Amino acid sequence: MQQLEQHPVVYLVTGDIGGTNSRMSLYAVNAHQCQTVHKATGVAVPTIARTYRNSEQYVPESVLEQEDAFVQYIMKPFLSYCWNVEEQQQYIDRMVKEQQEKKRKKQQEQEKDKKDDSADEEAKDEDDEISQTPVRLPPIRENGPTKIVCCIASAGVVSNNQVRLTNLKGLLICGTQIERDTSNAYMKSIVRCVIINDFVAQGYGCLTLQPHEVQHLYGPTIDFSSPNNNGGGPKVCVGAGTGLGECYLTQSQHDETHRDPYSCFPSEGGHVEYAPRNELEVELFQYLSRKYASHHRISVERVVSGKGLANVYEFLAQKFPKSITKSVHEQFLQAGDDQGRVVSEYSKKQPGNSSNKEACKLCQQAMSIMMSAYGCEVGSAAIKWIPTGGLFVSGGLTPKNMEYIAGGLDTDFMTSYRNKGRVSHILDRVPLHAVLVEDLGVRGAHKAALVAYQDYCHEQKQKQQRLSKQKQNEDEEDTYWIMSTTSMKTMTTNRLVIAAVVAAAASMCLTLALFPPASRTSSSTTSRSSSS
Questions:
Q1: Whole-angstrom Cα distance, residue 439 to residue 205?
Q2: How far is CA 16 from CA 134, 195, 391, 451, in A?
Q3: Pairing relation of β-strands 135-136 and 244-251?
Q4: pLDDT, average across residues 453-460
């Protein structure tokens, strides 16, 4: 069990809230903003992390529409979890058991082709076990010095520091509400909570990528060692997972509160219209129009995403029923939100026979259609933004299906990407990379949380400067008042002295006026003569 000996100045709490999982992380930061980082990537490593699966209904459906549901069922339980070693151990034990069960099932389905693959997997399991060791944090005291800064990245349109998840019945995540909650010591310690779009987090995550975490696909290469690589041109991130997300980044102005060379902006580009390009895709469009009762438009996300892949397979299954592989189709129907994963998996191999590498034809055709549409949308993003700073293809579908993306210019993805007619030459200026890691959202949320912490510190510094200036002004006013009072007293004393002198002079003048000197002399002489 790990234990933090020194009490950190601040904790960063991040959340990557998606349609499938809610991944929460806590980072311990000291006064110099130092954190534990991964040796290979230099990326900050969470002190504590936990994943809440939406399918397990950590937030019950009956309370999803309540204003404080996220706070009560995710935020507070996670903070409590971070300071509860026993609860951490229970969660870790459950995760290890699930991993072992998955590994057992995988071994039953197919044998390992290479021994080094098995060794790599064992090493990975060991790393996971080390990273999941419980951590004992110093206790948080009521009104103590500890500060918590949060950044929650969520799918949906963010407005006024809040967002509603449309795919979770409008679940509300409100940063202001979280900041104002004082129900326990953990919530009282939260001094800042910012809500960002999930693909803004993906975009900031792209700024942390290293060369070994991407695969170059087309155009120039990127110098990942330079913050302003490729001349500081705009960057774009497009990624298919549960849905389809897009964002763009531009160079930011440097000042003491914005230390990153790029600022990221949200986009709802995944909801632009899907454009069919052949007769089969026209039929797909018509099928989806009936399914979603939308006769005027279908968004590209209905095709390019995990759910989109399931839609394409569903369409092909009803059009070509004789091509259905029964065992695959049964798994597809029972998979729920994982239907896209089933199609992807069985597009690569025949179920139940590891020695037979022939793909399920219907799944393969569905993947081909989806990947072609994916490449088309990424190419559209390239000619819209002309991201000479880099175009990154991210999301959960990308690293799991690289054979449909990389491998030459004749893949379904690359063929559609490059087919931009008269402006195809623009793509020669765009560095296109596939992202091989799936934690960009977590990385980006951490980066945004660190910026929020820096902003908070800057605001506190300005506040302290204002208070200091106000105190200085008050001291100057007090000094002026004291000096003015002293001056007034001196002036009053002087006036009294002058008044006394004037009165004495006036009295003398009056005496002289009544008894002139000549009269007094004559009287004196007469008196002396009489005496004689």
A1: 8
A2: 21, 10, 22, 16
A3: unpaired
A4: 87
